[in-house]
Design goal:
By secondary structure, the protein is an all-alpha fold. The chain contains three helices and no strands.
Amino acid sequence: MQLHLQYHFSILQATQKNITKEEEGDDENEKNKDKNKNSNESSSSPSYSKLSSLSHLSLSQGNKTDKETKNTKDENQKKIRFLKKTKKDQKKRKTNN
């Protein structure tokens, strides 16, 4: 029973650490946004830091990057090919029997 409670307590601690890290990251993002607004008001071209902070926000919101979407498309195509092959194999088995 004690091990079970320790297990749940360790999970709670880990989630608490993750939450505090995310909150700290959000605070840093807001500070970076303010800095970028001040620095970019004078220049018309977007800076690298602004773009990197925006990409970080899109990832934290759960949006997939191009590489991730390509990987999922490739995986889906592999699954479809496999299913088609198994269907063909099943048909061959039926005709052979």
